[in-house]
């Protein structure tokens, strides 16, 4: 063979990172070592795979086509490892799992439960907003994706495994927190703290408001659910979030769910994969586990609907500073 499997692995890392330096860090080699292996691969093929791009590099047209085939080769090699492991009776394997950022609040609990009975399986987890996760799915660099709405532009299969409730939250001191049965258009003048474009939560919010033929006012745009929660708690505006992200704050009274007709809206969490992708056995087993057990595990801290039906707890009172005692002279 004119080139080695290791050279293909290093080429794949450089193609994915679009940087020799980042690829070297990922594979724990020096940059000159990675550069030499990629150069030897190019010499073996008689083709330039990369070309300069400012201070960095990018794939040539030949390199882009070559990269797609290399990913297939590396995936087949992983399949061979999986098959051998199965014949040895060892439950091992690697699963590349993409997760939209809103799902990170419950995915660790699912992984922890799964790995208790499958300790030999290794997960490579990537957490991004919807737009970035879709790029990974399109690039075939993940086996499975957990997201709130399957893509229409990518041919894939999507399996629902748990409900996803989305609603509008406010600080408990907000005047609207005491209102009942509000219509969504009544909130059109309220300032909202929203996720960035490309986020699934932002897209869901836009669809909900559009279905009521009304708009929302944006006072702040943030790329983190955690930051949005803190801003809403501070009274800077309202937030439209998956209730999985605010379960703790609702239970402790730091946030309240506004009583809006038609909300919270009920969506689903989906397990998504490329239709053409053959899953390794470890990924298949994880997918079956999600469909079988995920909903019960997600609700193990209390069903969200039950939490919403219960009266909200008052937020903890702030301690008053003690007055100094008067002393007699």
Distance between the termini: 98 Å
The backbone outline, from C-alpha atoms, is elongated
Order of helices and strands: HHHEEHEHEHEEEHEHEHEEHH
Given as residue ranges, the uncertain stretches (5+ residues, pLDDT < 50) are none
Helix/strand-derived class?
alpha/beta
Strand content: 15-25%
- How many helical stretches? 11
Helix percentage range: 40-55%
Which sheet architecture does the biggest sheet show?
9 strands, mixed
- Count of DSSP E strands? 11
Mean pLDDT figure: 88
Gyration radius over CA: 25 Å
Task: Describe this structure as you would to a colleague.
The protein has 329 residues and is α/β, with parallel strands linked by helices. It has 11 helices and 11 strands. The protein has helices at residues 5-17, 20-27, 31-45, 61-88, 107-117, 130-138, 200-211, 225-233, 247-252, 281-298, 304-309, and strands at residues 50-53, 56-59, 93-100, 121-128, 144-147, 156-170, 191-195, 217-222, 238-242, 256-257, 265-274. Strands 3, 4, 5, 6, 7, 8, 9, 10 and 11 form a 9-stranded mixed beta sheet that branches. The radius of gyration is 25 Å and the shape is elongated. The relative contact order is 0.13. The model has no long low-confidence stretch (mean pLDDT 88).
